[in-house]
Write a structure and sequence with these properties.
This protein has 10 helices and 9 strands. Strands 1, 2, 3, 4, 5, 6, 7, 8 and 9 form a 9-stranded mixed β-sheet that branches. Helix 2 packs across helix 3 and helix 4 packs antiparallel against helix 5. The longest helix is centred in the middle third of the chain and has 18 residues. The chain is globular and about 55 Å long.
Length: 283
């Protein structure tokens, strides 16, 4: 693996190149997850050149623009610059969660950059039939974070993203979950800068698909969903996004983090996931 820094006026974007395989590079994109979250998945593609990166303002990619928000169109511009620096486009892209949203924004703005995009569970609130309730649920966990800190905020986030079906009165009647229930600390560390639990990433979940641009792009777009996620928010969003694009979502093994090994203690089925991803890319 080699590590590179792409210096731009607004941010220094750090990306890693794994291997020197034949064919187009395979970019693995997360948000707010950084490059390290793809270490297990990348290991299952030793025959490919795999590129991972830290989004601006996260991990090693330092911002110089004075901003703290995470905007898909801005991050798509960074990815475009990375692809140009690689000099090997069009590339293939696997986008996870917010990274899937960034990748959809990339195809919208720079359709010739990407030959195939696999967008795994983009958390697009606006495509949900219960979008207003989902927005309310999102505000609720952010409010908990502001009031009580990381452990309580993350517990509320997990409860929200684990809820099956639409967000109903039954959901909003639930008491705030105990952080210990999810192995989270109960004490407040005083920080309020987590990108997942603040308004900093609100532009990700609020992103609106440009269906006409995506359908006009030469890119083959595959919306993917985990077999264990079909009833929860990210899975429902994937199913709805696929329908907007006139396709059926492709079912992958495991859950929202199905490609993970032991990176965050939230392991999925990475070998089976990688096998399915290879099958889809070759399809």
């Amino acid at each position: 693996m080699t590590t590179h820094t792409l210096e731009t006026p607004e941010a220094d974007i750090v990306y890693d190149v794994h291997g020197t395989g034949e064919g187009p590079p395979l970019l693995m994109v997360g948000q707010p997850m950084e490059a390290g979250g793809f270490s297990t998945l990348a290991s299952y593609f030793p025959d490919r050149t795999v590129v991972t990166y830290d989004p601006r303002g996260l991990g090693r990619s330092v911002r110089k623009d004075g901003r703290e928000d995470h905007v898909p169109a801005t991050q798509a511009g960074d990815l475009h610059d990375v692809i140009q620096a690689l000099g090997a486009g069009p590339v293939e892209v696997f986008g996870s969660s917010g990274g899937a949203v960034t990748a959809l924004a990339l195809v919208t703005a720079h359709p010739d950059d990407v030959s195939t995009l696999v967008a795994h569970e983009p958390p697009l609130v606006g495509v949900l039939p219960d979008a207003a309730a989902a927005e309310r649920a999102g505000k609720a966990f952010r409010d908990v974070y502001q009031a009580r800190g990381f452990g309580a905020g993350m517990a509320a986030f997990i409860a929200m993203t684990s809820w099956k079906g639409e967000f109903t009165d039954d959901y909003f009647a639930l008491p705030a979950p105990d952080p210990a229930q999810f192995g989270m600390p109960s004490e407040d560390d005083g920080r309020r800068d987590d990108p997942l639990l603040t308004d900093r990433s609100l532009a990700v979940t609020a992103y609106e698909l440009d269906v006409a641009a995506l359908n006009a792009a030469p890119t083959r777009i595959v919306i993917a969903v985990g077999e264990e996620s079909l009833d929860v928010m990210t899975g429902r969003a994937a199913l709805a996004a696929a329908e907007r694009l006139g396709q059926e979502a492709t079912v992958f093994p495991s859950h929202h983090g199905g490609f993970l090994g032991g990176e965050f203690g939230y392991a999925g089925q990475p070998e089976a996931f990688a096998r399915k991803l290879r099958e889809v890319l070759e399809g």
